Amino acid sequence: MTQSNLSLSRRSLLGAAAGAGALATAGGVTFVPGTASAAAPKAGEPMAGALRYKVGDMEVTALLDGYLDVTPEVVVGYEADEGARLREAALIEGEALRIPVNAYLVNTGERLVLVDAGTSDALGPTMGRLPSALEAAGVSADQIDAIMITHMHPDHLFGAVDADGNRVFANAELILPEVDNAFWFDDAAMNGAPEQFKAFFLGARRAADAYKGNQTLFSGDKELMPGVRSMALPGHTPGHTGYVFDSNGETLVVAGDIIHMTVYQFDRPDWGIGFDIDSAQAAQTRQKFFDQAASDKLFFAGAHIPFPGMGRVVKAGDAYRFVPANWPYTY
Predict the structure, then answer these.
(1) What percent of the chain has pLDDT over 70?
(2) Which of 73, 161, 236, 302 fits as disulfide partner to 240, beta carbons 3.0 to 4.6 Å?
């Protein structure tokens, strides 16, 4: 990989660093586990999120790690009048958008696979609730066989370790895109980053290193285990990856950060977010994925689509529209 492939543009880094500061100061919320012995939660205290679906013979459980509030300052390509129109159409007051952070647990029948590991305490008090969501789903961290990381940003990887840097998922294999791993371990890229952004590099390395004894790197589109393969979706990060789950004639693609702001980006897939390493490539990848998903009526899940974040996309003129999954979840 050339040095140019591993470099971050100053504009992208500054946007990401500014966004990190804004997101880290998001307003607080308290989550409580949904157990029978717990007191009923008060308004403003959501219960842990866990919803289970069937995909062929596989069980897929959507898990809610928390939420972030984003403002137009972190939207790449933002146009104020268009943004206001889209928020008005979505009945949103003010400029802030609240976006969830979802992870997905897949029981393939042979292995229990977690797609992304949540945030821990990396991005403020409204995040880091994945352990409560797993508890609500009746699953312990020690039962997870593999963690497939879509990319190595804090809200997808940092929850794999605790505050002391120890493995949260003691028995899990950590499966990482090789291109992303190379980027976050590249000293030149880290040294060229603004000071606020260097924590992203250091945190990614810390989490990955904790699993060195049980870690797998892969490149491109590859079968990773029976019924599970990777789908390269570069741009948001160099190695940003989706995971395709096939079972008994049904398919789900967990597409990571293919989209961040559903209010904006289904209408304006050319808009990006300040955390994109390559905003132009991310927009091209998003457009291509939406076109394929609409053409193939592809069932997919997104980390920042309103929980549980699973459904399909259809063409709506020159834009797109998201259609949430419309069958009941299983118990």
Answers:
(1) 84
(2) 236
